[in-house]
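Chapter summary example.
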Amino acid sequence: MCRSCQTNASMVRSGDGFGCSCAEHSVPAGIGACRSCNATAVVSADGTSCVPRRCQVVAGKFVCRKCPNDFVSVTQNFDGSPMKEVQCVKCARGYKAQGNICVRCEACTCNKDQVVVRGLCVAKSFVNNRPKYEEIVLHPTTLLDVVKYEYLCVQNDTRACRFLANECVNNFYTIDVAGPCRLWLQPKLTLPLALPQLTVDVKTYDRNTGVILPHGKDTVFISVALHTSDGGFKYLRETKHKALSCYLPIAIKIGTDFSFDCEINLSEVSLSKLNGTLVPYLHADEPKSLPVSLIKPDGHNVQRGTWPTSQFGRYYIVHNAVSVTANITNTIYLRTLTFKLRIERDKYSLGGLRVRIDIEAQYDKTLRIESEVITTLRVQHEMPGAGLFRALEIWASVLGVLSLLYAMVQYRSVVRRGGLYLAALPILCGAVADMLFFSIWLSILHAMAAELSTFGLTLPPSKQEEKMIKAFIYTAVSLKLVKAAWVNWNQCRCDIFFLDWSEYNSPWKDAPVSDNSSNWKICSLAKEWSVMQTKRRVSPGYVIPLALVILRIMDPWYSHFPASDGYRWGITALAWWSSYIAVLLSRWLKDRFLGSPASVLPNTCSGVGISLLVFQEEYHAHYVHGRNDQSKELRSTMVGQQASCRIVCSPQLRAVYKQLSTSETAGHLGLNETKQTVLSKFFAAFFERALDGLSWVASERTILERLFDIELTTREAGTTSTLLYDDNEPSCFAVTWWGEEWTLCTLDAMIFSCVYIAANDVLLAAVITLTLWQIMKFLRELFGERNLNQNIDLET
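The structure predicted for these 796 residues follows.
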């Protein structure tokens, strides 16, 4: 049980917390009670009684006498009894008042050839031979302390030498020969044995040599030695916390850059370890001192002209500086401590890494009135090349040649089909985008595997390689968007015809033909065609969630890799394509057993008795046969593989088509019908071989033509058109998203990985990819239906 002290008895909690003691300016008054002394009295030296002071009333106020500086106040007699009144007693000769006690004055015992410097007898010759201090940075009292401790350090006083070392570091290794660095700057002086070393010995650590990490080791430990001004020393070897900290010691993982801020409470600096100087060490079997480069608050480097080496060995975190010119106190603190690690492959050790470490300490200053300052610890790596440039040369050359050849063949096919010469630009953009994307991705995967097998760990790419990866990705996305825009624009400008055979062939002999009976059939087929225009073989709505699941599963494995944007992008692309292939295989199995969505359109055409004719280019069309065998008089000229085929139009057929596509031609022929109706009848007659001088031949496409969707064989010219057929799905899907799956899936992969490497947020990448897919789908449906309405002519 705990109880409170009696405040009405002038008692407070004792220092150990287990009892009550008399409050300040109080004396004991029995057991468990105290009483306060009057304002005109003081507590005796033994704390048992109140001794009055000599006071008088001045202007209605009590004014009590204070003892002069050379006097001490006495409250007790020699026998220990309290005095009637406090007496002021002057200290004897050779003593001085210090803390109300007379202590012996050392200066009073100085010889004639000595002078008193801050209470110490110093030889006059030492003071006279010392150079004159020219700078105005040190306060006069601090300069006297420097002279005093310098004299003691010459006599091998370890504490004095440590004080000089701290003052030298606090003044940024000043080159003034009369400053605190005098013993290190004048080589003619005999250096004391207790003098600390302020620079890094090149024999201990050579910047050009560095340290070697053995095979499989990926962490560098940097410890610290703390030197206080009173001679204290402490060597910290191990980190206390796994979290990042702005103070040493610290463990740095190779390839991991980070920055961390810490708040320093200036009111607690004197009670912490921050008021001393620090020496960083490379933690190993034999600790090696690391060099530190200092940057002063004015932004300039420390002058190093008179120092034996440019590598300083000590730095500090907080130092209070007193200005001589202005009566203010500034606080100079460590603003940024930067570790720069340069990693190289060691040629002489098997699978070893050579690490060169540079430490940079940048300082700032602030007024003492500020309670907190911020110190930043930053780690930067200069990594060696991961071999991406060499791997990229190989993959880019191979994939570039293949993509360029395929683009040339594609362009040749487009020109043969009667397409625009402008198609060379989007075709080339798509080929280059695929080459950039897959070459950099394969190079990253190759580099990750090669690093792991060589060094036992995976090093991140260099900064140049990281920039190259981002440049390749952003360029690939930009070029792929050009190709996707061209594909969608080209698909929304094709000519579409619906050939209703009931309008041209009656199911019964001499039966009249109704022109309005086929409206609902054409609308049904047009609706089915509109749905198929934006149907994908693999929907991103299934690929993206599966990719997120794969990335989540890969988290434990991915944590072993360094924090590299390039490697992160490579793993993300790997997860994407893995999910895409998985969804594609499941869709293939589903279509294998349950039927493909591509078979719905031919069945619809056969059900309503309407054929579909779509022109992809000027001389190239796609035909889906819709005639059925319900009437014996109805000639079924398209059976088997020819029911869904391609048409290579002859120049003469295209010339007649152009003539009939104008309204003036229909008027000259005496036809009171729309242009679309005239063209539909013309193509129906073509398939019925009713147009004199026009014919067609059937030919099967070659394996390469079916595999790459290109035209390699030169077809017959003149008045003969060619019907190309194969065993695949209806060729009219070439002008829909179903036939452009490669362009769209690579675009989705590029957008997803591009957003991920830019924002480092996989959920944001998923949302943006899905949003762009829906926006593109909406625009494709909008312009597709607009083009379909322009090509449908219904009489209502």
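To summarize the output: Residues 2 and 18 are 9 Å apart (CA to CA).
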